[in-house]
Specification:
The complex is a heterodimer.
Chain A (H helix, E strand, L loop, with lengths): L1 H70 L5 H23 L5 H23 L5 E4 L2 E4 L1 H91 L3 E5 L5 E5 L1 H7 L9 H5 L5 H14 L6 H6 L6 E6 L5 E15 L2 E11 L1 H28 L3 H23 L5 H24 L3 H18 L6 H35 L21 H20 L3 E6 L9 H19 L3 H6 L6 E10 L2 E8 L6 H10 L5 H6 L2 H6 L21 H11 L3 E7 L3 E9 L3 H4 L1
Parallel strand pairs in A: 8-9
Antiparallel strand pairs in A: 1-2, 3-4, 3-7, 5-6, 6-7, 9-10, 10-12, 11-12
Helix pairs in contact in A: 1-2, 1-4, 2-3, 3-4, 9-13, 10-11, 10-13, 11-12, 11-15, 12-13, 14-15, 15-20
Chain B lengths: L3 H19 L4 E2 L3 E2 L9 E9 L3 E7 L1 H10 L7 H23 L3 E3 L3 E4 L14 E7 L2 E9 L1
Antiparallel strand pairs in B: 1-7, 2-7, 3-4, 3-5, 3-6, 4-8, 7-8
The chains are: A alpha+beta, B alpha+beta.
């Protein structure tokens, strides 16, 4: 900006010096021409004056010469003619001087007067044309006319000798005046020429100086331009200016070409720059934001804080014919001019490595937190119990993988997998929650979310299952790391428990290789889950367990699954919040009871809570909301059939999905497990008082019991 | 952990081959994790990957499928060599797709081809193999991706 102003001033000065030089030259030439003209005229006058000055003496000399020739009887014709010429010349020169206005007239008048006095004496002499000599045999002598002529000549000679000095003085004065004037004009001309030459030299020097300065300025400008070019070629960020029409200017950094894989940015609008690289919604937001930047009142720091393009994910050509996701960071700075915002300077940086690093760090942090949580959970639980869960979970996930492995080509075949996946995952999640292994529970929950999302798709393909199988792999890897952690913990515990304080070889108890009594383990798990559920949902309740030691070994997994799911249901749907219980005159602590007993026909598991009970109408409404029934079908259902809705896959009275409820998979898992053992399940309820599930299982076979 | 985009690149490379070579796109079946059992068919084209990821990717197909594919490609030579060349080409296409999408992050070997014999595949430790069934017409092949 400063450089440009100085350059303009320099250019103006150079032009001014040139114009002044030309004007001065013209002035010198005009004035010099006039002076030279005047000098030439003066020189001419001076010549006339010089001639005039010579004439009086000449005339005197010619008269003397004429008299002497007459005295010596010599030929007088030539001298007479010379005298006539001198007189005529004097008249001519005098007349010439009289015609010039710039000659002092008083001097001319005086000269004219003096010269006029010559006329009476010179006229007879000049008028003589006779023969002044008469020749005889005795020789020659003046003739009569010759004698008169001689007298006239003598008189004229005397007159001229007498008047000549006065006339000469006058003429000398005239000559001197003319000489002086000519000299003066010549001096002025010299002075003018000297001044002109000096001025020309000065101006020339000034012009040369300015030209030099301009060249220096141009060199500096070229150097600055080169530096700018170097900066634009080297800077790693994309740099460009946007004008008031949101168009990119004529200059941008080389990095922009690499970032966007193109080279023609001049005149491109910001919208065109991002078109096809971001979603239409993002593009609309970005365009609105750019418009806001041109507002006079927009505060730059505030605008920076709401920049929607601080981390923009775009799909860019990877130079090999493919596309890859990049994260670009756009920053905007307003360039202000005297009339407000002139441009907006945009900088674009590829922050993909930073984003990736931040994500990896975040993931690592989450993983570390999860491991710490996991370790804390395991410190509070029996590693063998967790090991048992891991065995069950691994078996469950193996089943999940088996479901995935079943060949599928059509939507129906793919869709048929989803219910099985939901049940299996829900069961694993329930047990993980019961053991407070939240990192596992959350991962399974995420997997369940993915399955639920697929259930809503109208056309399923194998592609839809790719994320699912990746997540399954991740979950299996996590289970593996948990298993390793348990191994380390049990090694640590065994090492620390040596009484003599020396390090002994730890007894490695691999999870699943040695199991405590399964029913004790189940009771511990259920009580732990009950405490956690009561805390998570803010509903204090007491869990009473009876007869679990009677559960046959081969029924244990099913009973465990059923009790976990029913316990979660009781905590979420059954037990009412404190205020509701008080209003219904119920005790603040809810009661949940599970009883297992051998009966004549086999086994019976009763599970009941003193909670809100089931409302057939509420169940029907939920079924319509979940689109499991039409309103007409719901209206036709009797109470018994309405209660049976809770065993339908996907049924839930909860609108939102949480870790413990809402998927509609829990009671479905229970029912499917019971049916798989050839059992039956029944439900009875009294709204506001209780819900009771009764599960009847056949007598276990002798070999299984053994 | 293998990312979804990476897995999709290998899958797209495979299905694209069918679309371009036989003008009939292949679809993918339900993907699953390989658990001990072998996933090999009669002919297998395999690439080794190193760099950002380590492991193997292979396409394995039964002879019947390759025969029909050759027919659709207007080929008349159904020899053992043609079959080998065909699975090699599929592996090559998968490799090209990966190079396009991952660039220098992945160093990919020249495809190797196996026929009949059960090759010893050096699966990287800790990496599970993802099996993606490739369905084309009435036939099925498999794409197996095992990368850390």
């Amino acid at each position: 900006m400063q450089s440009s102003g100085a350059d303009r001033i320099r250019r103006l000065l150079t032009a001014g010096a040139g114009a002044l030089l030309a004007a001065l030259m013209a002035l010198v030439l005009i004035v010099g021409f006039r002076l030279a003209t005047r000098i030439r005229a003066n020189v001419a006058l001076l010549q006339h004056a010089s001639l005039l000055e010579a004439y009086p003496a000449e005339v005197s000399q010619q008269l003397t010469a004429l008299r002497e020739r007459l005295g010596t009887l010599e030929y007088t014709g030539g001298v007479h003619q010379e005298l006539a010429d001198s007189v005529a010349g004097f008249d001519r020169s005098l007349a010439a001087l009289e015609r010039r206005p710039d000659v002092d007239p008083s001097v001319l008048r005086a000269v004219g007067h003096l010269w006029k006095a010559y006329t009476p004496v010179l006229a007879p002499v000049l008028a003589y044309s006779g023969e002044p000599y008469s020749d005889t045999d005795f020789g020659s002598s003046l003739s009569v006319s010759g004698k008169i002529y001689y007298t006239q000549v003598r008189r004229a000679e005397l007159f001229a000798q007498g008047r000549a000095p006065a006339l000469h003085r006058r003429l000398a004065t005239l000559s001197a005046a003319l000489q002086k004037r000519t000299s003066s004009a010549a001096s002025r001309l010299r002075l003018l020429l000297s001044a002109g030459v000096l001025a020309v030299l000065l101006l020339g020097a000034a012009a040369a100086y300015l030209q030099l300065a301009r060249s220096r300025g141009e060199r500096a400008a070229r150097a600055a331009e080169e530096q700018t070019r170097d900066i634009l070629h080297t800077v790693r960020e994309g740099l460009f200016l946007l004008d008031a029409d949101y168009r990119i200017g004529a200059v941008w950094s080389q990095a922009l070409n690499h970032l966007f894989g193109r080279e023609d940015f001049a005149g491109l609008t910001f919208e065109e720059l991002l078109h096809g690289k971001v979603s239409p919604a993002t593009l609309a937001t970005a365009t609105k934001y750019i418009k806001l930047l041109w507002g006079e009142r927009a505060h730059e720091n505030l605008m920076k804080s709401i920049n929607p393009l601080g981390q923009l994910e775009v799909m860019l050509d990877n130079g090999r014919g493919g596309k890859e996701a990049h994260f670009l960071q756009f920053n905007f700075h307003r360039v202000l001019g005297p009339k407000g915002v002139k441009h907006v300077l945009c900088t674009v940086a590829d922050i993909t490595p930073n984003v990736m690093l931040a994500r990896e760090l975040h993931a690592a942090q989450e993983n570390a937190n999860a491991q710490i949580d996991m370790m804390v959970s395991m410190l509070h639980s029996d590693p063998l119990q967790v090991g048992g869960f891991l065995d069950t979970a691994s078996a469950g996930l193996k089943h999940v993988n088996a479901i995935l492995k079943e060949p599928a080509r059509s939507h129906a075949e793919f869709s048929s997998k989803l219910a099985g996946l939901s049940r299996e995952l829900h069961s694993i999640k329930g047990e993980a929650s019961a053991l407070n292994l939240m990192s596992i529970a959350q991962r399974v929950h995420h997997l369940e979310d993915m399955v639920e999302e697929l259930k809503g798709k109208s056309e399923l393909t194998g592609n839809d299952f790719l994320p699912l199988v990746l997540k399954l792999d991740e979950l299996l890897a996590h289970l593996r790391s948990v298993r390793e952690m348990i191994l380390r913990l049990s090694t640590l515990k065994d090492g620390a428990s040596t009484s003599d304080g020396t390090l002994s070889t730890p007894v490695l108890r691999l999870p699943g290789t040695e199991r405590p009594n399964g029913t004790v383990e189940l009771a511990t798990t259920l009580q732990g889950l009950a405490r956690k559920l009561a805390e998570d949902h803010g509903k204090p309740f007491k869990l009473s367990l009876e007869g679990l030691e009677e559960v046959p070994v081969n029924y244990l997994p099913t009973v465990k699954d059923c009790l976990i799911q029913m316990l979660r249901n009781a905590a979420v749907h059954g037990i009412e919040p404190d205020a509701v219980r008080r209003a219904a005159s119920k005790s603040a602590t809810g009661q949940v009871r599970a009883q297992f007993r051998r009966v004549e026909s086999g086994c019976e598991l009763v599970f009941e809570d003193d909670g809100a009970g089931l409302s057939p109408e509420a169940l029907k409404e939920a079924a319509v909301r979940k689109q499991l029934l039409t309103e007409e079908q719901a209206a036709e259902l009797d109470n018994r059939s309405a209660l049976a809705l809770i065993f339908k896959p996907g049924f839930s009275t909860r609108a939102e999905v949480t870790m413990d409820a809402g998927r509609g998979a829990g009671m479905d898992v229970v029912a499917k497990s019971v049916y798989a053992l050839g059992g039956r399940i029944g439900v009875s309820t009294h709204p506001g008082r209780f819900t009771r599930f009764k599960i009847a299982l056949p007598a276990p076979s002798q070999t299984a019991v053994a | 952990m293998l990312r979804e985009e990476e897995l999709k690149t290998f899958v797209d490379g495979t299905t694209r081959y069918f679309e371009v070579a036989a003008q009939q796109p292949a679809t993918i079946g339900s993907p699953y994790l390989l658990e001990g059992e072998t996933a090999m068919h009669d002919y297998t084209g395999m690439i080794n990957v190193s760099g950002k990821r380590e492991g193997v990717v292979y396409f394995t197909a039964p002879r019947a499928m390759l025969t029909v594919l050759l027919m659709k490609m207007q080929e008349s030579d159904f020899s053992h060599e043609s079959m080998r060349d065909l699975v090699g080409e599929v592996a090559n296409t998968i490799s090209g797709n990966a190079r396009r999408d991952f660039g220098h992050d992945f160093v990919i070997s020249v495809p190797s081809v196996f026929a009949g014999e059960k090759p010893q595949i050096s699966q990287p430790p800790g990496a599970r193999a993802f099996v993606i069934p490739i369905h084309w017409r009435s036939h099925s092949a498999k794409l197996v991706v095992s990368l850390t």
